[in-house]
Amino acid sequence: MAIPEYQFPPIESYQPKKGYQTGTVEEFYLRYAGKTYDEIVGEKGYDKFNQPNGPNLRYVEDPLRSGYFLDMRHVLIIGRYGQIAGAALEMVQMLSKQTRKSAMDPQDFYSNSVGERFYLLYGHLLKNNPSKFASYFRSYIKNQKYRSAPIENIFMEINLKAY
Questions:
Q1: pLDDT exceeds cutoff 80 at 161
Q2: Three-state secondary-structure class, residue 66
Q3: Distance between CA atoms of 102 and 116, rounded to whole angstroms?
Q4: Which end of the chain is more exposed for a tag (fewer CB within 10 A), N or C?
Q5: In whole angstroms, how far apart are CA 56 and each of 25, 51, 145?
């Protein structure tokens, strides 16, 4: 019995939601260069649970996947905690009528995975250089090897470039 090939959701699932600012990686870099993680994620303030609402520039076009947009709130905030935490959050959203409509969004899972990998590769560098967040993110997001090669193969390369 053949295993059916996985069908990715249609590209429309990865488009920006209406009413939010969109931009390119370069626009993200220019807007947030020199700012720390906390300054970026707290730009839109905090919700009633004291969680950051993310940056004003909410959706950034993925430079390596034409037509795909990253939800920067998920990349920056949820990605930092990893894909398992992101999946758990999506399941919690399913329990509430107010949040059910946005639960299990393919774009959220995609953005979480991009963010998780960024933090695995650059998190330790950000501790020593917190104002280089936008610079590190730009280097990562535009580099196919950094986004797809086994982490152990590129970890040392990133560390050598950082110093």
A1: no
A2: coil
A3: 20
A4: N
A5: 14, 15, 29
Q: Which pLDDT score is estimated for 102?
A: 61
pTM: 0.85
Q: Between β-strands 69-71 and 59-61, what pairing exists: parallel, antiparallel or unpaired? A: antiparallel
Instruction: State which amino acid sits at residue 50.
Output: N
Question: CB under 8 Å to 97, separation ≥6 — which residues?
Answer: none
Domain positions in the chain are 16-162
| Lowest pLDDT segment from 2-11, 55-64, 76-85 | 2-11
Distance CA 66, CA 62 (A): 7
Q: Give the model's pLDDT for residue 91.
A: 66
Token readout for 24 is 């390119």
The strand ranges marked E within the chain are 22-23, 59-61, 69-71
The span from the CA of 99 to the CA of 76, in Å, is 20
